Amino acid sequence: MKRFLSFLLAGAMTLSLLVLPAGAADVVRFSDVTDRNTIMAVETLRLMGVLDGYSDSTFRPGAALNRAQFCKMAVYAMNGEEELGLYSTVTIFPDAKPSHWASAYINMASRKGVIAGFPDGKFHPERSVTVGQAVTILLRMLGYEDKDIGGVWPASYMAVGATVGLTDGVGTNGNAALTRGQAAQLFLNLLRADMKEKGSYLSSLNATVLENQVLVTSSATGPDGLETAMKLASGETVYQMASGKASNGALNGLRGTLVLNKSGKVITFVPDAMGVQTTITVASAKAGQIVDVSGAVYTVTGKTQTYYNGEEKPWSEVFSWVSAGSTVTLYLNSAGGADYIFVGGGSAASSAVIVYDNGSTAGFADLTGGSTNYKLYKNGAEVLGRDIRKYDVATYSPATNSIRVCDTRISGFYESCSPSPDEPSEITVLGHAFPVLATARESISKFKPGDQLTLLLTEDNQVAGAVEAKGAVAASNAIGIVREGGRVDLLCGISLSGGSDDGKDLVGQLVRVSSTSRGRLSLSRLSGGNAGGNLDVAARTMGQRKLADNVMIFQNGVNGAESVSLSSLTDGIIPAGRIAYARVNSSDKVDLIVINSGVDGIVVYGRAFVDFREETKEKTDADGKPLKDEHGNIIYETRTWEAVGVEYGNGQKVGPFTTPYNISSGDYVAITLRGKDGFSSLKKLDETKNVPNSAWTSENLVTAGGVTYKVSSDVHCYNRDMKMWVTLSEAHAYAEQCTIYTSGGYVRCIEVKR
Questions:
Q1: I want to staple 250 with a disulfide (CB 3.0 to 4.6 A). Which of 310, 398, 617, 622 is the partner?
Q2: Does the predicted TM-score (pTM) go above 0.70?
Q3: How far is 39 from 34, CA to CA, in rounded Å?
Q4: What is the C-alpha R_g of the chain?
Q5: Beta strand pairing call for 393-397 and 381-382
Q6: What is the per-residue pLDDT across 46-63, written as a single tens digit (0 to 9) for each?
Q7: Residue 298: which H helix or E strand, with range?
Q8: pLDDT at site 65
Q9: Are 505 and 538 in contact (CB under 8 A)?
Q10: How distant, in Å, are the alpha carbons of 14, 133, 714 from that of 69?
Q11: Exposure pattern of 646-655 as b/e (b: 16+ CB <10 Å)?
């Protein structure tokens, strides 16, 4: 494999139309490559040294390759370094004499039986190579001979190429000129292919291959100190790139095969064929499903393995923090469900641009390699350039060809760094170690431990820069939920720690987070905000303003602030008096709402259970004095009564409460809470039995008894046979019909049994 790699590198360096990047660690992106499959193919081959772009940051995927150039690429893949010199003085074709730059490659490929000339005895090196010629060459590299294929050229070769997967994404016209983009796809297909006799093509090269791996990042710090190493989800080991090149992040988050040389260094990462994995923009994320902006629905479970902010977690711990507009990469099974989820779309930022003027997109095209054909998102919502503000941070996601803008700012005291204040790769503020982008090190180096500063974060919570914590623009805007033990889980997905005088009183509440002294969090409860008016759920407005597509809604309940969906709220008007906090974003839309500062008015839908309360107390006379028996002992009496509580998704409960209502265990009810220990109303939900699965027109609508009901996004589904709460998709799969329980035009609960 060492010889194989050296050939590939040598070939890329000497091809006149292929230009290497200026520096070994430069991040290379091509402004004219926007197709997802081509991006993956080009990056895989570029890291390997087979392909590269031009000095103007273009790849020119539509440009044709000539026969000499493709022949040279094929020879390098044949691992023929030691033999190449034997063919430098040989003349096989009269138009490829030793003076021709590609003569040795042409001669060797001919002797090995990989290529052939034309009937006129010439090779015609400057002619465009056709798709059929290229497929023929690669099939021979896989061990196929003419007798294995048939006598009709190029049709027979194209047919076999299609069978083994060589032509996937390339086309079926064997007579067409091969483009650079098609060549990249062909060679990627070769790396994925099996030999005719046995084993994979990669294995035939004596490489070490690690299959079924998820690439977490390709900009990890390697043993050489450069951020050109790859890290997998399966372990802590980092693998240094053999070529020293830096990946542009296009392969991050993908599942595939890591290819290592004999020294254990990375030759390249070969992603699995698309269809197994897909990168989407999220419209909604729920416990049992993910819906993308096109309306496609992907089934997940609470146990689905998820990579989120550098950690593997079950989906049940993550979905509440995945907002509309986020990108995720899904690894799909044969049923279309997700086996693995990579939050962030596999786009770990390697560089960022800080905005210094409102409405400015200066520098954004530099992130894309010059392309302006990108989508623009801010905090997960699609925006316009005029919505950008000072100190916003922009990064590029090759997976979705989008600029991702984030305005998260965290103020605190500089606690420590690694490895040094002059070249920090990590900085600790508020008890959290933040990774520092290479492009941010200069701004961080202006501060020293003990200084107060404001960190400017990327969408994936890396430090893009730092500024003095002065003025409203540079102030912290971090918001999170207070947990036991002084921890605060921020809405951006990270946790902060540090002592706080207010922490005990604010557990479960949404707060604004900053710091006024080293090692101490400063917490303030959210209130007011910059939006006012009633919340119209159906119209998606608050006062005169529209709600953002990715609006986050929290409801203060008995267990503190809980994330809820808009559809789970009553389909009506929530008065301004119940709005504890509302925030307006730079697009003048409401993107964060906190409802009800206490528990009064909170409605919980679920399955009732009856508990029995018992109270023993002294028996008294009319004057309230304890009664005694003939021996002078106080007489006690015991009273027993029923109390009703409500259980809902995953075993959560409220109550039990003493009630005069005639409620039995197993009834489905709506209970309106009052304070922590009481309720103002309790009523049974309307019941409709034997609703067939065919009555569901979508995950969100069902028609029963001539009435069409909306389905709450957090609908609670109970499997009566298994005595457990399940997801909606699990309920549908278990039984062909169900019983629905409705209120206010919404399905609030579902029960299934066989």
A1: 398
A2: no
A3: 7
A4: 32
A5: unpaired
A6: 888 778 888 777 889 999
A7: strand 297-299
A8: 92
A9: no
A10: 10, 13, 58
A11: bbbbeebebb
Point out the residues of the chain with pLDDT beneath 70.
Answer: 1-27, 79-82, 274-276, 309-311, 334, 345-349, 399, 498-505, 557-559, 567-568, 570-571, 596-602, 612-615, 638-642, 650-651, 658-661, 674-677, 713
Report phi then psi at 734, rounded to 5: -75, -40
Contact (Cβ atoms closer than 8 angstroms) between residue 306 and residue 343: yes
Question: Beta-carbon neighbour count of residue 662 at 10 Å?
Answer: 8
Q: What's the one-letter identity of residue 300?
A: V
Instruction: Write the DSSP string, 429-484.
Output: ETTEEEEB-GGGHHHHTT--TT-EEEEEE-TTS-EEEEEES-TTTTS---EEEE-G
The predicted pLDDT at position 38 comes to 87
Degrees (nearest 5) of the Cα angle 265, 267, 271?
120
- Strand extents, DSSP E, 305-451: 305-308, 311-314, 327-332, 338-343, 353-354, 375-378, 381-382, 393-397, 402-406, 409-418, 426-429, 432-435
Q: Are strands 409-418 and 452-457 parallel, antiparallel or unpaired?
A: antiparallel
> For residue 426, how many other CB atoms are within 10 A of its CB?
15
- Contact present, 447 and 414 (Cβ < 8 Å): yes
Both structure tokens of 39: 């991006």
DSSP structure class, residue 499: B
Q: Which of 324, 290, 292, 323 is nearest to 304 (CA)?
A: 290
Three-class secondary structure of residue 704 per DSSP: strand
Q: How far is CA 402 from the centre of its chain?
A: 14
